[in-house]
Amino acid sequence: MADSSVKPEILAPAGSPEKLKYAIAYGADAVYLGGTGFGLRAAAANFDLPSMARAVEYAHRHGVRVYVTLNIFAHHRDIDALPPYIKELARLGVDAVIVSDLGVLSLVRELAPALKVHISTQANTTNWRTARLWETLGAGRIVLARELSLEEIGTMRDHVGVELEVFVHGAMCVSYSGRCLLSNYMTGRGANQGDCAQSCRWKYRLVEEKRPGEYFPFMEDDRGTYILSSRDLCLLEHLPGLVKAGVTSFKIEGRVKSIHYAAAITRVYRQALDAYWSDPENYSVRSEWLEEISKVSNREYTTGFITGLRPGETPPAYSIYRRPYTFVGVVLGYDRQRSMLLVEQRNRFARGETLEVLTPGRESFNLEVTEITDAEGNHLEAAPHPRQTVYLPWPGAVPQMSLLRRAEH
Ligand code: SF4
Predict the structure, then answer these.
(1) How remote is the CA of residue 116 from the centroid of ligand 1, in Å?
(2) Candidate CATH numbers 3.40.50.360, 1.25.40.10, 2.60.120.290, 3.20.20.70; the one for domain 9-176+230-302
(3) What mean pLDDT value characterizes the chain?
(4) Tens of pLDDT along 20-38?
(5) C-alpha of residue 384 to centroid of ligand 1, in Å
(6) Among 73, 100, 193, 200, which is best to mutate for testing ligand 1, by the most ligand atoms less than 8 A from CB?
(7) How far apart are CA 304 and CA 312, in angstroms?
């Protein structure tokens, strides 16, 4: 049943209208996003219906598909509120909804039979019998559990006709994909309601009740430990195997991450998939891709469960957060008359710094900040204000939506 002759899609996170545009500019074939329409409270889910309509229009104009998350485990109150939202999503022309709950699936099938349904990774599909059942219930695609090996994905492909989607990059749960109450307990934000605070990634120390303020390390190293925090997934080296296994969609995690993350990671996977597709025999992971993913904030990389766990082996080890580069601005345009880049500040940067420019279409390059001026031509020592628009001298045009970042050594 495998059909590795169809090029898979790169599916990128779109946590906001701006991130959607960057994901598309940097090479996504499809994006996924969340709505606010019926009580999904996720931090990333900031598309109300009008902004979702604009997002769908924008994405479709660029030939990009839009999938909307409906993957809460619904309570009665959600079921009561869902029908108008589902009808509205169908009316907007979204390409699919992502569902984990059987009740929600049945509602979508009933109210919007033409709307394609993807089964969320939160449904934890780990075997072909489950996948086949989802298929018979009308699912068009299954986002497989991250805990599957490549061999298991291949077996899945052999038994079902439904499309398969696999996470290839991004954060992983230390629990079984979202089946965890840590965030509910510590913040009141429910992972199974699409609102995880990612509490497992916080830095923990031991404190004895009668000694407030005395924090004892868990002794992993002298900076404390992150015993609950998994490393981040990166499957660049396994793209060929996943293509051969008939995977339809390569999904990048991270709706709450920055536009820097969305742009940089989407670009790497776009380049990697295109490289494999044009010359499968000679595919290898390029050093510039590894360099690029290391420049984005991460928790060290792992290939997760893709090679399977042998007896006695532990799941991906815990990790420490690293942010080697700071994203400082976006290029809004180029003033040819003054030979100046028009830049919107996102983090403070100053005259004399060297920034790296990440562009949608060409290689990254360095830019020396020799001068900063404001719109009135006043000289500034720094661009300290968020969203401040400044001008930087530069001899040639740089594509809009290029990103500026600074190495933090
Ligand atoms: S707290 Fe961590 S392990 Fe739990 S659901 Fe959230 S991301 Fe997953």
Answers:
(1) 28
(2) 3.20.20.70
(3) 89
(4) 999 999 999 999 999 875 5
(5) 34
(6) 200
(7) 15
